[in-house]
Amino acid sequence: MTAADSTFTFKQAFFDAETGVLTLNYQDSRFGDFQEQLVFPAALLQQPWLDDAQRNTWLIAVNRAVQHIFWMAGVSYYKTNLAAEIQFEHEQPCETEARWLADTWQAGLAELAHENDLGWLSHIQFPGQVHNHKHSDNLTLPGRSLVPIGGGKDSLVTIERLRQAGEDVTLFQVGSSELIQQVSKATELPLIQIKRRVDARLKQVAEQGAYNGHVPITAINSVVAVLTALLGGFDSVAFSNECSADVGNVKADNGQWVNHQYSKSWAFEQQYREVLTESLGSAVDYYSILRPYSELTIVQEFSRYPQYFEVFSSCNRNFHLGGSRNENGRWCGQCPKCAFVFVCLAPFISRQQLLAIFGHDLLADKELWFLFMALFGLEGDKPFECVGEALEMRAALTLLKDHEDWQKQKSLQYWTQQVPTVSQSDIEALMAKQQPYFLPSKRDLSSVHWS
């Protein structure tokens, strides 16, 4: 465990408004200095929609959003040593921001801690100051939606629901994934790409004994999205996080759940919304359109958009710093996400369409037996991936039994003998719209939801 006198220091953040480069500097007492850069495109550096009366308020909001990125992105470097104390050379978070950061870092690094037998990282605490923000309630941004796109089914459903509601939508991406750019092109909507340059020393220190593992990446993307919204003139940031993201993987020794998807959870969304309200006022609404729905319900809705079947992918092998690791197609056919999406999509499209997407019948793949046992909740823990609940997998298999394309398939016959059937009433409850959720009140977006 971390030495008692170890420290992690937030040194400085600087945003160059002429080049769009945001430079973040950190220091760990064991592994030294780290620097990260985010590059915002030139199109975001001019604000023709901003009048002089709002400019000072806007600048205050931009500065706070920069600080949120500085603080949240630091988790990628803090994780190397899990230092005992967190320090700031300059601006500190307020009390609300400090709680949000501590909660997100503790929960977001819980998977790393679990894999290294470290217990819950309750020592992660941020010093907070008394609230002294100047509100941005008089900052009015254009009525447009910024939608983070990940290349999978969820964000595509969000895009189509917003499009049907008549929203002015622009897509948002952190990184340089070619797959995301190809999927974005298929939507025929504009895309804002933010380049992220993670310090190359992370790889070096990992070889020197630094901790390495999962970080709350959606939290980082969220704070970057809000700054992008302020720079580009969007009053809403619409994520695609579902209610299934609230379900954890394993329980830690202190009774808290280790949740791979914590920064996609309702708890994170609520807390970040509180931070934004306190620090930015009502300038930017941050929310998830898909919050009321299970993964299975979202997959059913996605099945209505066959124009994306050939381009979408949720397989994580597509998303690595060095590029995609899928040599053949968009789905590796071996990981938890491939297996989960395969089963959940199967009841809602033809078998021919399904095999065209994945290449083969994953349920018949003997090498995936242990993986399916975990996903169906029969053996082992829920995989540390962005997958839904075992109940959703079981419900999908129950629905698949009535699919005429699968009646004679031995793979289905085998798994239906292993997996308990889900009752019709339980399936209906699972597929129903859930509470709680949030929708912006600036304009009527009620039609983005379906029943």
Automatic annotation (TrEMBL):
Enzyme Commission number: 5.1.1.23
Protein name per UniProt: UDP-N-acetyl-alpha-D-muramoyl-L-alanyl-L-glutamate epimerase
GO biological process: cell division; cell wall organization; peptidoglycan biosynthetic process; regulation of cell shape
Pathways involved: Cell wall biogenesis; peptidoglycan biosynthesis
Catalytic activity: UDP-N-acetyl-alpha-D-muramoyl-L-alanyl-L-glutamate + ATP + H2O = UDP-N-acetyl-alpha-D-muramoyl-L-alanyl-D-glutamate + AMP + diphosphate + H(+)
Domain MurL C-terminal: 311-426
Signal peptide feature range: none
InterPro entries: MurL (IPR043689), MurL_C (IPR058741), MurL_N (IPR058740)
Keywords: Cell cycle, Cell division, Cell shape, Cell wall biogenesis/degradation, Isomerase, Peptidoglycan synthesis
Residue intervals of the MurL N-terminal domain: 6-289
Cellular component, GO, one term: cytoplasm
UniProt cross-references to Pfam families, sorted A to Z: MurL_epimerase_C, MurL_N
Superkingdom of source: Bacteria
Family: Belongs to the MurL family.
Organism: Marinicella pacifica
Lineage: Bacteria, Pseudomonadati, Pseudomonadota, Gammaproteobacteria, Lysobacterales
MF terms (GO), sorted A to Z: racemase and epimerase activity, acting on amino acids and derivatives
Free-text function comment from the UniProt entry: Cell wall formation. Catalyzes epimerization of the terminal L-glutamate in UDP-N-acetyl-alpha-D-muramoyl-L-alanyl-L-glutamate.
